[in-house]
Amino acid sequence: MTPITEVEGRRLALSNLDKVLYPATGTTKGEVLHYYAATAADVMLAHLHDRALSFLRYPDGPRGLRFFTKNPPPGTPDWVRTTPVPRSDDPDARQVLVQDLPALMWAANLVVEFHTHQWRRQTPAVADRMVFDLDPGAPASIVECCAVALWLRERLAADGLSAYGKTSGSKGLHLLVPLEPAPSEDVTAYARSLAVEAQKALPDLVVHRMTRALRPGKVFVDFSQNAAAKTTAAPYTLRAKDRPTVSAPVTWEEIGACEDPAALDFLAGDMAARLEHHGDLLGPLTDARQARPLPGG
């Protein structure tokens, strides 16, 4: 029998709680739901608020079928909010909003990675943050990503912008920058210019083009996720990896000191203590007072 749980007045059917989703650690679906409810909810909801969501679903764990979806899944409750996100293939398309704890738990019960756009629902294609996805090509690792992040932080600061880091929860690092609202195409162009500049400054370490043949041993500075149609793994989401890795905010001290990839490898079980110690390191992204204008905007 599927247990029915009431969350803030909403009735949720939470299924297969004993199912092992992460065989490498024995982590069950019940433990995944506990992570979202008890550890991540307060900080995560602030980063999801008013952002149209896409889901990478992995209902049988990361070794099973995985599929990406933008449309609200079949059976989405009528109390889960959605927002118009017109696409060329579907002008009437809508995507899910996760605005509260019941919606978060409903989505988590589907077993998903949470991915968001860089804009809010009120202003589609007008970004209020910029992202750089630093993706290492083996044998490079997150250690090399950290070196590139330090360069980008200094370069952004020269333009009056502040950057905040989080692990991707996979191999790399994300840098996020709070902005006064600006067209996504302008943000993408500026981010691309910095990626090109980074490659010129660090030619043995950085590549700004996606071509895989160029990437071994280097860090791909992916600026393309600033495009209006693109999404990035949300802060605090679990990833569909062998272990329940988290896209976890990190300090600049941790980035600067990183000499071992394991130093920035965080699991769901690590996050309560980190939040207790650091609070939400990405809090400035949700504070409009921290936003700065896009250079040249």
Automatic annotation (TrEMBL):
Enzyme class: ligase
Region (Disordered): 70-90
Keyword Ribosomal protein: no
Pfam families according to UniProt: LigD_Prim-Pol (PF21686)
Entry GO MF terms: DNA ligase (ATP) activity
The enzyme's E.C. designation: 6.5.1.1
Keywords in alphabetical order: Ligase
Residue ranges of every copy of the DNA ligase D polymerase domain listed in the record: 28-281
Keyword Transferase listed: no
Name used for this protein in its record: Non-homologous end-joining DNA ligase
